[in-house]
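#data-curation
PF: Archiving a pair of folding outputs for the training set. Convention for this channel: one message per protein, sequence first, structure tokens after, nothing in between. First:
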Amino acid sequence: MSLDLFYGPAVCLDVTGFEPRTDITAADLDRIEAAAPVSLQPGDILLLYTGTWNRFAGDKRYLTDFAGLGESAAEWIVSRQVRPFGVDSPTPDNPASTTYPVHMMCRREHITHYENLARLDEVVNTRFTFAGFPLKLCGAHGGPTRAVALIG
């Protein structure tokens, strides 16, 4: 994978406030972006602040008590020409999902994503440069990453 996928302009949108185990929709993302002081540009890296890490890091609820992106939100990411995207939860999908529409979209569109990001509350509703280079692991479909926001 090209290294430029893992570095570049980014925005973080606030998707807190949804009930756990529910879908965040494309309409929700449109509304959230319209109210945000930043806007997503084609080619940006998108981070979504769910608040999951802040609320539940180190607690078993971290794995189950959060909202996730639904199928329409997954297609919204494609339509907005997002490069990688990431969340501060263990998966971008709704934890109640049995079909994993976000993972299926990522596979179909060859879009990579980050999971388990931390401290997104420090960059929510801002534009910054993101760097998140994964370890190069043979035969793996994921890998540890040191994610960094460069502000200013």
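PF: Second:
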Amino acid sequence: MTGPGRERPILFKSAMIRAIQSGQKTQTRRIVKLPPLQPWQLYSKGWHFIESNHSIDDCNNYIAGFGDGRGTIINIKCPYGKPAFAPFDLPADRLWVRETWGLTVEDTVCYRADEPRSIVTRWRPSIFMPRWASRITLENVGVRVERLQDISAPDCWAEGIAHAGWDPERYGSVVECYRDLWQSIHGPDSWRANPDVWVLEFRQVAPSNQPTATKP
């Protein structure tokens, strides 16, 4: 099954929006949602990653395989899409960014990441941003699965850590800074859990400095 690339929404906080706009954020990590183990799997060590590739049955999908070490294998489709896949001559999927936003009394869209001085009637959570209000579109250039704690120092920089509190006098390494960023979003024990994560690499295809939108 072939077809054009698809668009999917993705949420980012204001600091990460600024990192994307500056070109310093080209990666993001999102937890792979694995099903709970069944009673017959309780003596296994849990799900472990096997491989990821384009689905043979539907090349528009990008899937990851996991096994429980006891003969059970599951395939999970990446909810954030896929990169371009040359053998099938398919375009990459795109992500349209949701961020905290609001409307002025003139129904012009403002974005919290810009720290605007305009009078906004009410700030609205990113989850409620409609497609027409989004100003940033990203194209997937890479997808892979890895354990969270396997992140490298270069990947921390690609995660936009320079915009997320990096301070060489406070942290011994950029990985420690990224750990604190992750825990601030997912909770104090989330780093220790070391989950499998989707590693999405992207490039911006819509200009970040486009004029503010007006409500249709």
